[in-house]
């Protein structure tokens, strides 16, 4: 279910701010916009905007203004409780099977926090705030016989892999087709 966590939006904002502040240091040293763009690995257009902001408002103009948009409805504590419940599995949360769907996750969020989210937004919460990715179950036939498969791989597959017999009478040796 969960995978390696991506950096949080706050960490990403801090990294971007650090890069802009490094650009301000380079501007203060008298470096050209092209040099700054090359050193920081960003476009000249971005550096041009940063330079204009730096000239107008100094280093403070390059600081992050914080997150945009409304505050999330789920607090970090709520999100932690939801993640704990999800890690326990769908059956532990009262569902018939242990398969999570966005609709089921939305139900769990509502039960635990009282906050209702549309299933389409649940995906955004799982991906962006929890760092989870899609995990699809393996599709296997219920009547699959692992022992028969192992036998086939051990005995039949090597025979088939060898290919057709070579130099049989009536067959051309280069193409293994009947000669005319």
Can you offer a commentary on this structure?
- The chain has 180 residues and is mostly helical.
- Among the domains are: 54 residues; 54 residues.
- The chain is built from seven helices and no strands.
- Helix 2 packs across helix 3, helix 4 crosses helix 5 and helix 5 crosses helix 6.
- The longest helix has 20 residues.
SSE inventory with pairings:
Blueprint: H1 9-28, H2 33-40, H3 44-57, H4 76-88, H5 102-113, H6 119-129, H7 146-162
Task: Give a quick set of tags describing it.
mainly alpha; 0% strand; 180 residues
Summarize the structure.
The protein is mainly α.
SS field, number of helical segments: 7
Shape, please?
flat
SSE string, helices as H and strands as E: HHHHHHH
Largest sheet: none
Mean pLDDT: 86
Number of strands: 0
Radius of gyration, CA atoms, in whole angstroms: 30 Å
Structural category is mainly alpha
Percent of residues in beta strands?
A: under 5%
C-alpha termini separation: 61 Å
Proportion of residues in helical segments: 40-55%
Low-confidence stretches: none
């Amino acid at each position: 279910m969960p995978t390696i966590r991506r950096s949080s939006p706050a960490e990403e904002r801090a990294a971007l701010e650090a890069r802009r502040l490094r650009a301000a240091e380079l501007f203060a040293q008298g470096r050209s916009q092209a040099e700054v763009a090359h050193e920081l690995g960003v476009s000249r257009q971005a550096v041009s905007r940063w330079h204009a902001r730096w000239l107008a408002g100094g280093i403070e103009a390059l600081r992050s203004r914080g997150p945009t948009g409304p505050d999330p409805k789920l607090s970090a504590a709520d999100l932690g409780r939801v993640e704990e419940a999800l890690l326990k599995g769908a059956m532990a949360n009262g569902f018939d099977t242990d398969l999570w769907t966005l609709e089921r996750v939305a139900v769990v969020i509502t039960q635990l926090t009282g906050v209702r989210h549309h299933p389409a937004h649940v995906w955004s919460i799982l991906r962006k705030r929890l760092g989870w990715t899609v995990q699809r179950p393996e599709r296997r036939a219920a009547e699959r016989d692992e022992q028969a498969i192992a036998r086939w791989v051990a005995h039949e597959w090597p025979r088939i892999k060898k290919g057709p017999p070579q130099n049989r009478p009536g067959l051309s040796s280069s193409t293994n087709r009947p000669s005319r």
